[in-house]
Amino acid sequence: MRLDLLRTELEIRYLQEPSRLRAELALIPRDQLVIIDEIQKVPALLDEVHFLIQEESRIFGLCGSSARKVRHGHANLLGGRALRYELLGLTMHELGEAADLLRMLNHGNLPTHYLAASAQDLLRSYVEDYLKQEILAEGLVRRLPQFTDFLRSAALGDSEQLSLASIARDCGVAATTVRDHYSILVDTLLGDFLPAYTKRPKRRVISAPKFYFHDVGIVNHLARRGRIEPGSELFGKAFDNWIHHELYCYSRYSGRHFDLSYWRLTTGVEVDFIVGDGELAIEAKGKNRVTAADAKHLRAFRQDHPEVKKLILVCCEDSPRVLDEDILALPWQRFVMMLWSGELTSEVA
To answer: I want to staple 188 with a disulfide (CB 3.0 to 4.6 A). Which of 64, 66, 163, 240 is the partner?
Structure first.
């Protein structure tokens, strides 16, 4: 049985009388799965779900695109009675032989966008109709023009060290407003923070987080990047975003939920991704030809953290090779294979 709260009549029915769900399910076998889509539209239904799980051992699948309205409405979050899963955009592992890096970096990872001959109109509609109008309709922001300015600034700063004060100045709002806007992006599953790795520092390190959108196609549209071409600076930024997406998805889909962070010294030396407790360090270089010089930041991390188990540079070369001592350069295809087989993170706690 599936109830879609995007249907206006259902949303109104349950908003007016949440207990109606219990009465309707009395006619349904108790072992039948009940799916409620867009549950955040009627948070009061969660009390009914709680009762039906506890008293009748009912099985539910609750889906939604935002946890913010549920949590901020003080709804029943079913603590200890439900498992949470995130359904993220397409990964190269899922695409298999159909994986196309240039298409991914231009179209993004939402299935409809990735598969389309051209994603520009789809991305424009998605941003205007969902990112802006749905967020406004849900009452998550009061002033859409300010939020629109924030989205563009956040996209321009995707994968970079976060400065709330700088973005606040650009948007003409308070830093607290910018912080609230970022929390909306996290709660609506549009992106997440990447914290700085600050454990056991031997030199002064940066502690400010970065922010990554989960879909590089949205970043491209908001930042007005145009077409991403190999060899450009924008290709490198999009490549960085995609590596984060693969790592983030694998961490959650595998059930390991390992820590992800980045490492940066105050001198500017930086490694893109630190996995776990420093067991694995990954540098993303969207280049067809890498040299030992491209691995200098990985060497710096090894110097400060000799306990690191693996040092990987992901690139666009044709075949894997050793760059410097134990630093391995991996083509992006090999990186995907080793990541999703578990080989790359086998030593991560």
So the answer is: 66
Return d(Cα 8, Cα 41) in angstroms, integer: 10
Q: What is the mean pLDDT of residues 101-108?
A: 97
Rounded CA gap, 158 and 88, in Å?
18
List all residues 6 or more positions away from 115 whose beta carbon is below 8 Å from its beta carbon.
none
Record the tokens describing residue 177, joined without a space. Answer: 């407003």
Residue 157: alpha-carbon gap to chain centroid:
15
325 phi-psi bin (left φ>0, alpha ψ -120 to 50, beta other) = left
What is the H or E stretch that residue 2 is in?
strand 2-4
| Residue 69 scores a pLDDT above 90 | no
The residues that bridge with 265 in the sheet, in sequence order, are 205
Instruction: Mention every residue, 6+ apart, whose C-beta is less than 8 A from residue 331.
Output: 314, 315, 316, 317, 318, 319, 320
| Cβ–Cβ < 8 Å for 305, 295 | no
pLDDT in tens, 37-65: 988 888 889 899 998 998 899 999 998 87
Transcribe 120-143 into DSSP letters. HHHHHHHIIIIIIIIHHHTTS-S-
Q: What is the pLDDT of residues 21-31, one digit of tens each?
A: 999 999 999 99
For residues 75 and 99, the answer to whether their CB atoms sit within 8 Å is no
Helices 233-253 and 332-340, packing angle to 10 deg: 10
| Local structure of 18: helix, strand or coil | coil
User: Which residues of 118-246 form beta strands (DSSP E)?
Assistant: 191-194, 210-213
Q: Give residues with Cβ within 8 angstroms of 310, minimum separation 6.
A: 279, 280, 281, 326, 328, 344, 347
The pLDDT of residue 211: 97
Quick one: average pLDDT of 133-149? 75
Phi, psi of 36 (to 5 degrees): -115, 115
Partners of 194 in beta bridges: 210
Identify the bridge partners of residue 192 per DSSP, sorted by sequence position.
Answer: 212
